[in-house]
Amino acid sequence: MLRFLTDRILQGALVLFALYTITFFLAKAMPGEPFTSEKNISAETKANIRKLYGLDKPIWEQYITYPKNIITKGSFGISTSKGRPVIDIIAQSFPNSLILGLCALAFAIGIGVPIGVLSAVRKNSWIDWACMAVAMVGICIPSFTIGPLLQIYVAAHIPGLKVAGWGNLEDILLPSFTLGLVSAAYLARLTRGGILEVLSQDFVRTAHAKGVSPSKVIIKHTLRGGLLPAVAYLGPAFAALISGSFIVETIFQVPGMGQHFVNAATTRDEFLLLGLSLFFGFLIVVMNLLADLLTGLLDPRVRHTRKTD
Amino acid sequence: MKMTDPSKKTPQGSSLWKDARARMAKNRFAMGGLWVIVVMFSLCFIFAWFCTDPNQVNLTNKFAPSSAEHWFGTDALGRDLFARILYGGQVSILVGLIATAVSVAIGIVYGAISGYAGGKTDAIMMRIVDTLLAIPFLVLVIVLQATLSDWSGDVTQWIVGNFKWDKEFTGRLTNVVPLFFALGLLGWLTLSRIVRAQVMSIKEREFVEAAVALGYSKSRILFRHIIPNVLGPTVVYSTLTVPGFIMYEAILSFLGLGVESPNSSWGVLIKEGANFLETEVQLLLLPGLFFSLTLFSLNFLGDGLRDALDVKAAKD
Amino acid sequence: MSLLKIKNLKTYFHTRAGTNRAVDDISFSINKGEIVGVVGESGSGKSVTCHTMLGLLPQPPAKVEGGSVTFDGEELINLPHSLLRQIRGKRISMIFQDPMSCLNPYLKILDQVTEPILIHENVSRNKAETRAIEMMKKVGIRDAESRAHSYPHEFSGGMRQRVMIAMALVTKPDLLLADEPTTALDVTVQARILKILSDLKDDLGIAVLFVTHDLGVVADIADRVVVMYRGKIVEQGKTRDIFEKPSHPYVKGLLACRPTLETQYQILPTVEDFLQTQVEKDGSIMLSECPDANKRLAELKSETKYNNPSGDTSNVLLQVKKLTVHFQTGGNFLGKPPKIVKAVDGVDLQIQSGQTLGLVGESGCGKTTLGRAILKLQNTKSGSILYDGNELSNLSQADMLHFRKRMQIIFQDPYASLNPRQTIEQTLVEPMLVHRIGSNHSERKDRIVSLLEEVGLGAEFLLRYPHEFSGGQRQRISVARALAVEPEFIVCDECVSAMDVSIQAQVLNLLRELQQKRNLTYLFISHDLSVVKFMSDDMMVMKNGEVMENGKAEDVYKNPQSEYTRELLEAIPKATLSGENSSF
User: A125-152: string of b/e by CB count within 10 Å (b at 16+)?
Assistant: First the structure.
């Protein structure tokens, strides 16, 4: 177990390093200096930043200075488009994105997995076709079509649901549903595939031969193995949620990190872009680790080393 | 002692591809998907030539309803919606196809080499892939796209200066091409993993060992024995990558980071349509319909291909 | 009163390719406390019979077209599932062939063995677990209390099968259906499992339906035998009667075509020598006896041209000295040392030109690795390989090209040995192209056709693909491919192990004929001692990478020097009924 953890942590560090390197050099390759067009930063702050990040120094020094500043000062730089420290922006928007993401994940799992299980158990029946059709919809109709449609056809007609904005509990509903839909669709398909795969295995026949009832065969013998592909997907699902948040936050005006990221890209806000990318990368590394641990929990073959008799 | 042959009379055998095609033909969804794609292709690439200019602005005829002249009506700037949808389709479909082609080219080579070489080479190559995979795709694409599109202006000037191409055409080209590469350069990762896994499992099969025992060269084995057996899942995955890339392009365009005017794509059209939701729903729905229909069909086709090829593999 | 009575049972499979009459009107019965062996080759319907009884077949495409199965007076066919479930695991239990895939990898062993008790009896969990552990001890799982909390992948094959047996018998059923339970096990492990089964049968008084393709196993443990062929029962009766005085030509053929340890044949009789099969237009099969079967047997008995003169001064073609192959497992960059497995540990051998050296051992003994190492398909750590006086061990793969023409190999799995994307013609012409045999296209084509005929196939096979052929046919194509480069030396790596006994006899005969015609030298590798003894002049027994015994095949059998060889010989199900070969 310890070996597994250290291995994954090292790999995670490698990932962040690669992400940082690529993003850093791409950000530096963008034309224009970080401050060339911004007015909302005082001259004094600009001078400070220049000194702190050595913007006049060679690239290699800047490359090292940035992470050094993160570790020693906890500073991700100043956002040129917003005129505030990046860390402040992150601190303020992260909770919103977190809530959105967790609710979306809850929707995704709560809708996707049961649909997948139902489909698999009733394979080739009309229920199967219906569920898979719904899943197809989630994959093929983009969130920026569903979102706006929900806005005009649902939000506009149900009192209490704002079309956009973020302040009350109900405001979470539509955005997180829209965000979670794509992941729900993938989870449904993966779960269906996983369970069908397990159902075709010999040990399911053994269970029947022992007289286990059909529902127990599914719950006790099939689910654990059948859910493995879905659990393995949780890591990428989380990444998808982050990507999806870019759109959903824009449509529904949610003040989260996704919106800021898009803005940073459109306004070429170097520090904000870097800071957010690193933060996203970090979140995904953690999430992937959790997903791997969960897989290990479900599948004992991953956990134990083989012993021979 | 002669053994009589109890099977068919005709000596011509049926290859796995032929059997797969026969199996696919029975899958109504996949065939339906195939037809829709053919129609969509014809519309966007052939029929579009005969349509009115999608960039023709006519401010006096904003939001016109459906008519003989404008089959789908017009948009906020009086441009023919139908033509815009078809021309937008060109970009969306091209992005999907070219990005997939780039991914597949890189992915197959990388995966085949990694899988065939094995050992340390493979371990390092796959570490690289795993690391890159863990990086949020869209984050990288956005940053890459932002950088590339900033350069496109310079590239346009350079091309126009040196090769005397038409400025407008070049401008549109350099605007779109970086997108192909941004997506393709990052999309090959999963494909390489799939190819590698296939190559590794084929490599262990006895007919490959027999080939080594018969003294065949490594390149002969790789190209004549391993890769032909790897094509099946590769084709399936590639088919399913195309709609994925079309979706990515749409997302980028929606965020304002993708295709820019005068180019348009389905993503751009949907974004524009979203602005007029309350009043002119068709501006969102119609491009959305074409978009979704294409994606549905591609997915059905991909699923059908997978079912058709899988069963044969299982029989082997 | 019979415990189980099967009457006119018909189970058909309806697929797009047609209707397969897997079980076609069979009738037999089992009495309380007896072991009935159901013997047949692949496609005989023996497994389907078992599955039908417990309703385990997927109902499309399978369908019970007729007949009845009465268990203790109760009709099982079309019994509603809720009632059927009360019988499954409680009064009729079943064990399967491959314990790895038949045990749930995600649940602990104790959980799985306890499950039948908890389902069928009203007993507390603690009590059930105690009983489960007791049963596990009975089947020979040591430290059952602690090992019960492990998972299936932590056990070896033999142990897993014991778990399956414990799981099946823990509710003390009346009838045990055993579907090829020892087929996937080594012969020594098989012997132990069979003993466990027969002890438990005496202890618990259960009846056993034992399905197998191995006549030897059946002779050892069954009271009565039922022989199936293509869905029908061709003969049934007391074990002794079947083996000493078979009446049906198929059974005669089946008994005769096995290369037993006692066999004196150079070329084996085959089922076709006894049985004529004719497929009618409506898909049914007409079986008839070959009129001159006895004459053929007499011919075979007096066949001597396959006797290889041994001990004469024919030159040594292959000489291997102190060959060592090590495998490395585990270990990572965090400093854990890798484990070294000595797959082949200092092996010496030599084969004279025109002779056959048999290499026998159980799984993991290194025989396959040794065969591959000699052909440089596997890297060696040290040792010398002298082929016709040439040292091969330090040659690069490029330098080996010349020798690849002279040394070939035939593999075990006919389904994986041919490139599924190439036609037979492409598969056979490629070696000729690589080694520049044949000067033009038509000359090569002629060679290919003659190769196919030499292995008993025809030119109509050329444009077809491997998946259109049976296992036996594909193996012949593999032989043809090996012969395409005109080799002198062929390694036969378990090349008949994956086959039915009747097909095996054909392929063994083919190999013998080819050896005689082309003066081939064989290294014949197998886990089946009887087959190895039949094929070989000299024989070598391996265990854990080392040579346990080496000598003339007949000597090793009659006078085994090593303890391990004796153990192997003991374990072989002998069908020790004296009359087995008397008329054959």
Answer: eeebeebbebbbebbbbbbbbbbbbbbe
Q: Do C463 and B13 touch (CB under 8 A)?
A: yes
Do residue C463 and residue B12 have CB atoms under 8 angstroms apart? Answer: yes
Partner chains of B (3+ C-beta pairs under 8 Å) = A, C
Reported as type and span, the H/E element at residue C66 is strand C62-71
**Token pair 């059946």: residue:** C218
What number of C-beta contacts closer than 8 Å exist between A and C? 88
With beta carbons under 8 A apart, name residues in chain C contacting B312. Answer: 467
Label residue A231 exposed, middle or buried (CB < 10 Å: 0-12, 13-18, 19+): buried
**For testing contact with chain C, the best of B206, B231, B312 (most C CBs within 10 A):** B206
Q: What residues of chain C lie within 8 A of the CB of A205, using their CB?
A: 56, 96, 102
Please name the residue ranges forming H helices in chain A. Answer: 2-29, 43-53, 59-73, 86-121, 126-140, 143-150, 173-199, 202-209, 214-216, 223-226, 228-252, 257-266, 270-298, 300-303
CB-closest option in C89, C101, C336 to A203:
C101
ipTM confidence score: 0.82
CA distance C290 to chain A (A): 41
Work out the minimum CA distance from C548 to partner chain B, whole angstroms: 28
Chain CA centroid to CA C342, Å: 26
Burial of B289 (0-12, 13-18, 19+ CB in 10 A): middle
The larger pLDDT score, comparing residue B135 to residue C250, is at C250
**3-class SS at C250?**
helix
- Quick check: A11 pLDDT over 50? yes
Element (H, E) at B39: helix B28-41
CB atoms within 10 A of CB B12: 11
Interface contact A141-B142, CB threshold 8 A:
no
Residue C233 in contact with residue C198, Cβ under 8 Å? no
**Cα(B276)–Cα(B273) distance, integer angstroms:** 6
Distances (CA, A) of B79 to B24, B52, B61, B91, C123: 41, 9, 8, 18, 79
CA distance C47 to C22: 9
Q: Other CB atoms closer than 10 Å to residue B1's CB: what's the count?
A: 10
Enumerate the residues of chain C whose CB falls inside 8 A of the CB of residue A300: 105-106, 151, 153
Neighbours of C308 (CB within 10 A): 17
Give the C-alpha separation, C51 to C41, whole Å.
17
User: CA B139 to CA B111: how far, in whole Å?
Assistant: 24
**What pTM did the predictor assign?**
0.83
- pLDDT for residue A32: 59
Residue in B139, B271, B310 to test binding to A, most A beta-carbons within 10 Å: B139
Alpha helix ranges (H) inside B72-222? 81-117, 119-134, 137-163, 167-203, 206-213, 218-220
Q: Hey, what are C366's tokens?
A: 């290194």
* Inter-CA distances, A201 with B139, C92, C98, C105, C438, Å: 40, 22, 12, 11, 49
Tell how strand C285-289 and strand C316-329 pair up.
Answer: unpaired
Is the pLDDT at A305 greater than 50? The verdict is no
For residue C258, with 0-12 CB atoms within 10 Å meaning exposed, 13-18 middle and 19 or more buried, which class applies?
A: buried
Evaluate whether B165 touches B159 at the Cβ level (below 8 Å): yes
Beta-carbon separation of A148 and B284 below 8 A: yes
Where residue B13 falls among pLDDT bands split at 50, 70, 90?
Answer: low
Q: What is the rounded CA–CA span in Å between residue A235 and residue B44?
A: 37
Interface contact flag, C481 B214, Cβ < 8 Å: yes
- pLDDT tens track for C410-463: 999 988 899 988 999 999 999 999 998 888 999 999 999 999 999 989 888 888
Neighbouring-strand partners of residue C318: C351, C387
CB contact under 8 A, C421 and B1: no
Q: What is the DSSP string of C79-96?
A: --HHHHHHHBTTTEEEE-
